[in-house]
UniProtKB/TrEMBL annotation:
The chain crosses the membrane at residues 20-40, 52-72. It is a multi-pass membrane protein. The keyword Coiled coil does not apply. It is found in: Membrane. The lineage of its organism: Eukaryota, Viridiplantae, Streptophyta, Embryophyta, Tracheophyta. Keywords: Acetylation, Chlorophyll, Chromophore, Electron transport, Iron, Magnesium, Membrane, Metal-binding, Oxidoreductase, Phosphoprotein, Photosynthesis, Photosystem II, Plastid, Thylakoid, Transmembrane, Transmembrane helix, Transport. It comes from Cannabis sativa (Hemp). One of its GO terms (biological process) is photosynthetic electron transport in photosystem II. This is Uncharacterized protein. One of its GO terms (cellular component) is chloroplast thylakoid membrane. One of its GO terms (molecular function) is oxidoreductase activity. InterPro entries: D1/D2, Photo_II_D1/D2_sf, Photo_RC_L/M. Belongs to the reaction center PufL/M/PsbA/D family.
Length: 100
């Protein structure tokens, strides 16, 4: 049984709410509650101007872009060429099976 995450959530709930002067600012469950907490945390601490946070966001978004580009490239090369010598120029969408 995983008790540690629940205990950690309760500890953060109590400590964070007391440090920010109210229960309204404490983190809670749910997407809307997380966004509300992030909004108020930003208001008190200016977290998004932290250069390490900026680098982390750039890495996550850059990795997502690279994954999307890689997936599109792989998906496009799973088909045999139709009339072109280049795999990105033509393919046959009615091909029976994938080629690697």
């Amino acid at each position: 049984m995983k008790i540690a995450p629940t205990l950690m959530h309760k500890l953060i709930l109590i400590l964070q709410s007391h440090s920010l002067s109210g229960w309204f600012f404490a983190p809670s469950f749910g997407v809307a509650a997380i966004f509300r907490f992030i909004l108020f945390f930003q208001g008190f601490h200016s977290w998004t101007l932290n250069p390490f946070h900026m680098m982390g966001v750039a890495k996550v978004l850059g990795a997502a872009l690279l994954c999307a580009i890689h997936g599109a490239t792989v998906e496009n090369t799973l088909f045999e060429d139709g009339d072109g010598a280049n795999t990105f120029r033509a393919f046959n969408p009615t091909q029976a099976e994938e080629t690697y």
